[in-house]
Amino acid sequence: MAGFIKDLRDNGNALLIRVSVIAAIGGLLFGYDTGVISGALLYIKGDLHASSTAQEWIVSVLLLGAILGAAISAYSADLASRKWTKVASGAVYAIAAIGCALSVNVPMLIGFRFLLGLSVGTASFVSPMYVSEVSPPRLRGGLVSFNQLAVTSGILLSYLVDFAFANVPGTWRWMLGIAVLPGLALAIGMITVPHTPRWLAERGRDDEARDVLDRLRENDDETDVDGEYKDMEEAVESEKSSRVRDLFTPVMRPLLVVGVGLAFFQQFVGVNTVIYYAPTILQGTGLTKSGSIAQTVFVGVTNVVFTIVAVLLLDRVGRRKLLLIGTAGLTVALAVLGVYFWSPGLQHHASYLALIALMFYIASFAIGLGPVFWLMISEIFPTGIRSKAMALSTMVNWAANFIVASSFLTVTHWITREGTFFVYTGLAVVAFLFFAFRVPETRDRSLEDIQNDLVGDRRDTLQAANQN
C-alpha cells in the first residue's frame, strides 16, 4: 500500500495530482446523487404523495438521463474536448440540483432528476477517461480510481447529509439542494486544468500536447517521456479513421464484449439496490426511518475504506485478481442476505446480520467491480475509438442500472425480497465465470501497449487469414 503513495510523492507532481483530484469530482457528483436519494425518498413519498411506482421513477429517471448523457458526451468529449465536456457537466448538475430542491410535485422532481442524469452520465465516463490519459502507466490504476474513491466518498457524504437533515424542516429539499456545491466545484475546477495530451494530439496540436505531457511528467524519473509521446503519436495516427461502426468490427469485438460484460455485471449483481434502497432494506428489519438512515452510514464508511484499499492495491496486486476476489465476496454476501430474509428466525434473533451482510457486500464490491470496471474501460480500447467505446459501455451500465433500480420494489413484491437476492446471487456466479475466462490483466502497461496486445495481435491474425 505504501508503494503507491511513495511513487506518487517521489515521482508525481503538483499538476498531475491536481488534475486527477479535480477530474474525480465528477465521480463525487455521481456518488452523491446515487446515495442521497435513498434517504430523501423516505420523506419525498409522504411529502409529494409518491406511490411505489412514482418512487421507482424518481430514483430511476436519473438513469435514463445518464444513458442520454453518455451518448452525447461520446461525441462532445472528442469534439469539444474532455475538459469542456466536464465543465458543462458540472454546470448542468448545479442547475438541476437547485431545480430538484425547489420541486413542488412528482413530475417536476422527475424532470429535474432527468436533467441531473445528463450530467451524471457524462461525468461517469469522461472523468476516468481524462485521468487515464494524463497518468503514467505505473500510477494509472490508483489515479483513475481516485474517481471511484470520489464516487464512494460522494455516497458517504450523501448518507451523512441525509442523517444530518433527517429531522430538519425541509428534509429532502436540503438533501437534494446541497448537491449544487460539488457541481460548481467541478465546473470551476475543470476550467483551471489543461486538455489531455492525447486529445491535443488527435487535434493535431502537437506542440501543446508535448508541453502538457512534459509538465505532467515533471520530476518523474521513471517515465521515458520521449518514448511515451512517440507511442501516443503512433497510436493516434493509426486510429485517425475510427468511427462508431469500427466498434463492431471483428478486431474490436472481443474488447467490446469485455467492456459491455463488465458494464452489465457491475449492475446486475444488485449494487444499486444496496445504494438506492439501503435504508428501505434496513427499515424492513424493524428499524425506524432515522435508525435505518443512521445504519446506512456504516455501509457508506465501509464503501470508502475499501475503495481506498483498492486504490492502493490496483497497481500492485492487479485489476483481475481484485476483480475475482471482490466478486466472490459479494456473491457470498448476497446469498447471506437471501437466507436472512427467507428465515423469520434470523430476522427476529439476528437482525444485525442484514447490516453485516450489506457491509461485507459493499466492501467486496468496492475492492473489485466498483473501481475495476471504470478503470479497465479506460485502458482496453484504442485511442481513436476510446471515447465512443467507453460511452457505449457506460450506456450499457446505466441501462442495466435503470433496469435494476426501476424494478427492485416491484420484483421484491413479485418474488419476495429473499427471492430477489437469490437471483442476484446466481447472476454474481455467472459474472465470476465471465471475469475468470474473458477479462485480461492490464496492470503496469501503457495504453498503447494494451492496445497493441489486445487489438494488434488479433489484427495481425485477421490480416494473415485474409491474405491466405
Structure, explained:
This protein has one domain (2-457): Growth Hormone, Chain: A (Up-down Bundle). The protein contains 20 helices and no strands. It has helices spanning 2-11, 14-47, 52-79, 82-101, 106-134, 137-164, 171-177, 180-191, 197-202, 206-216, 225-238, 253-268, 271-283, 289-313, 319-342, 344-349, 352-367, 369-377, 386-438, 447-467. It is globular.
What is the averaged pLDDT score?
Answer: 83
CATH superfamily: MFS general substrate transporter like domains
Gap between N and C termini:
50 Å
| CATH architecture descriptor text | Up-down Bundle
Q: Show unreliable segments.
A: 461-468
Number of separate strands: 0
Can you write the helix and strand succession as a string?
Answer: HHHHHHHHHHHHHHHHHHHH
Overall geometry: globular
Spell out the key features of this protein.
468 residues, mainly alpha, Growth Hormone, Chain: A, 20 helices, 82% helix, globular, disordered C terminus
Give a short synopsis of this structure.
With about 475 residues, the chain is mainly alpha-helical.
